[in-house]
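In the laboratory, one determines a bound structure by crystallizing the protein with its ligand and collecting diffraction data. In a computational setting the workflow is compressed into a single prediction: the sequence and the ligand go in, and a structural description comes out. We illustrate the idea with zinc ion.
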Amino acid sequence: MATAIKYPVAGLAGMLVWASEAAELDERPSGLLCVGCEEPVILRSGEHRRAHFAHRPGATCSGGETALHRTAIQVISEGVVTAAREGRAYPFKLCCEQCDASREGNLARDPECTVEIDRPLSNAIRPDILVRGGNGTARYVIEVVVTHSPEDAALTEYRTHDLPVIVVRPSWDTMESFRNGLTELETYHFTTEGASLDVLGRCRFPRHIEPEEGALRSCPACKQSARLVTLEVSEMACWSRSCTRHVRVLDTYALLDEERVLIAAGASDLHSSSTIAKELGVRLEMRNSKTAGTRYLANICECGALCGDNFAYGGFGGQECTPIIGEGVHRYVVCTAGHWTAVSARHWPDGINLGRTMRGQGLTGEVSGVLEVPRNEASVSVTSAEIKDIARMMAGVIRPRR
Ligand SMILES: [Zn+2]
Ligand SMILES: [Zn+2]
Ligand SMILES: [Zn+2]
Ligand SMILES: [Zn+2]
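The predicted complex, in structure-token form:
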């Protein structure tokens, strides 16, 4: 059994030696040890096989799981510190399914950072890897999971320290990529046994709405029913063929049934949205659509043409959006009476990628569901499958320039 494992890396006097590099240099140093059990291994290489280290026949290795765990910890720790000292990034991918935002994180951001392996943090909790900043502040926990996920007690402890936890499920195939970052994990996710990465903890993207923030509350101005609404501004080309302007358009979101939903700004229960839009440099006007058979608030270009996807939203259907950096995400508590109480305005982090949600509500000016919906008013909801039909219905007058 032990001889069957093809280790890509071995230990030599406390350092890691890669089979691929040793084979290329045609080096066969003595004293190579298995990272898992610290028993000797030998380099096997040749024209027809990938270079690897293996135990001699008959060796009793502590087993692949321990070796995989210990090796990944060593490779990642060494990778983070080396990248930091050389001024390189040690990237990992941060993405959130709830708010559809992603960005590359960097574990080696602090050039003076240090790592601790299996050392107590507090309350007898020992993270596999703890990355500390140059000033000693704990920054990240990396848990390498081969058999057991981190214990609840550990996760609670990390939460009290407000430490993001990166859970890495390694495989031998992804091991060498850990020298330079944790970005290969997504690619390998479906092709090797269990190599994947999760980031536990609170999503910090400014568009994220936590369930407790998204619940119905009372309006600070009038005590009526209110809810948190976020506004995002982006720019897109005017839909009129004869216009070259880029138009500011608005995306309005709320958390409904625990899902982040795109709301048409002109939904009848969302009063005064055009006033707020104006403050953000977005022009919303009530227009009549013959094809849709209704009036609704549409995004309008200076030239008077309708803009934005379906004219009611900035964008739709999971497409990437380019937010206006500097505008960021504006949060308001909005009530039935149309009070918009500003809560915060946060900037987008650098390098962020933003998608747009696949679900929208209140498309044709009917109630959005942001506030309590009277029984006799039906909300128009849209799923991705219906987007094309609705776009066709509503884009009767002006067609996109493509
Ligand atoms: Zn071994
Ligand atoms: Zn999020
Ligand atoms: Zn109010
Ligand atoms: Zn225009």
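Residues 2-62 form one domain. Keep in mind that any predicted model is a hypothesis to be tested, not a measurement.
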